[in-house]
Amino acid sequence: MPSVRPISTTEHRDYLATLPSASFLQTPGWARVKSEWRSESVGWFDDDHTQVGAALVLYRQLPKLNRSLAYLPEGPVLDWSSPHLAEWLRPLAAHLKKAGAFAIRIGPPVVTRRWTTAQIKAGIADPGIRLLGQIPPAERSPIGARVVAQLHELGWRHQAAEGGFAAGQPQFVFQVPLREADGSQRTEEAVLTGMNQLWRRNIKKATKEGVEVVRGSRADLAEFHELYVHTAHRDQFTPRPLRYFETMCDALSDDDPERFTLWLARHEGDLVAATIAIRVGEHAWYSYGASSTQKREVRGSNAIQWAMIRDAIAAGAAVYDLRGITETLDAEDSHVGLIQFKVGTGGEAVEYAGEWDLPINRPLYKAFQLYLKRRG
């Protein structure tokens, strides 16, 4: 059974560099972004003292108590194909219990199901289908099914993806594969051909209208943030402060200079769209986006997405991840517009195993659950 012990930021960073990829939420830099949480890097080591796993643990202390929720967003990073997950998770639980955790929340980075663009379009068009899960998936992952079964057997509890104490990471995401079935890199032409006609037309229109997409610098974050706040007011969500994005830029760039990229789309000098992209090894994410209410007709949002996809292809990424979608396919639901925008890229809907809790102190965990319900 692998042993678990704290590791340094350098050990953590060096181990992740040996892997094809890992979630950016499991990188050492992310601890600096989430400064309101106490953080710790831990590693798994085999009998030969070789490191075989890693995790970023974020501790959120309960009010007035010296006990914390230990949260491992989109982690830990270990061999999830193992048929004996207890050998990995039990030493983790023992370590976190000693650190004062009353419960542990993990987010196994394991795919369980996939749906094609065609399936999603058909589901939205069918009034009898309201949820993605009502459609038989194009692919079921045996490893994902085994992980879910083992977690249930080991006493872990599956959590709803929305809201809550740890904010929660999306269980359903939308991704554009950038590798062919044989593992070769897809070409820009192949990815563009996979997009729907509207996306291709909008990308072409942006070029014709003279939209210019460039990489921004840290100094451009203030301009990004101004447009982001404008977007937040329009779309009715609470914006993060500028300092959050400055910290993200600094922390992730310290881990790897290519990890964080700000993209800016301008039309005749006006900023019409801006985005933040993150890449860890072979996985590229669209993380944050902003767009102007004016000049929507020049299609800056399509142009900037295409620039990010092209950059991911050039970097040798295996996947371009547009992050979360809801499970709804109800044409009357306001969230379906986001899915339709992402579906236009020609990718696929992907379900992960979701987030799971292991209660350590059951009375405290029960009180914690009641606290969450009261918060709504």
TrEMBL record:
SUPFAM superfamilies, per database record: Acyl-CoA N-acyltransferases (Nat)
Keyword terms, alphabetized: Acyltransferase, Cell shape, Cell wall biogenesis/degradation, Peptidoglycan synthesis, Transferase
Gene3D superfamilies xrefs: 3.40.630.30
Source taxon at top rank: Bacteria
Signal sequence bounds: none
PROSITE patterns reported in the protein's UniProt record: FEMABX
One Pfam family named in its UniProt record: FemAB
Family, similarity comment: Belongs to the FemABX family.
Protein name, UniProt field: Lipid II:glycine glycyltransferase FemX
Organism expressing this protein natively: Nocardioides vastitatis
